[in-house]
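Hey team,

Filing this mostly as a record. A colleague (T.K.) asked me to run one chain through the structure pipeline before their review meeting, and I want the input and output archived in the tracker in case anyone asks later how it was produced. No errors, nothing strange. Just documentation.

Input sequence:
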Amino acid sequence: QLRGGGAGLDAASAQFVASMASSWKRLESSSIEKVNVGQQENLGVKELIKLSNEQIENIMADAQRQAAARVKGGKDEDTLALVYALLMDSSSCRKRLNDYTEGLLVQTAQKMDQFKAAFEASKRGGADAGPPANYTPRRK
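Output structure:
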């Protein structure tokens, strides 16, 4: 049952909107923060992002199947097409966010490894005990 009375949609259109709302909730739970909840093993960032992207792609495929049968033709075509487009756009944005997150976290991990290696070398007093190549000292 749609809240607000369904705004004059016929039964099939109201059902489509309800299924898109369900897909929207599934999309919300596909974020990398929520994907790892309940997992038995600790997953790395790349695995979490892969799992999140797979869930997003499944949601998009389900929505595409539902829309193919319902969006074209009928008095509510524009409204249903808009609901579908919003879900697909949000899905694409989530995948893009995952890509950016992965890029940032990988860069951060690489810099941390460089810093750690330089720190360990300086503790040993070795000849290679200089700062990382991309290190910029702070001004005093």
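Quick notes for T.K.: The first helix runs from residue 11 to 28. DSSP finds four helices and no strands in the chain.
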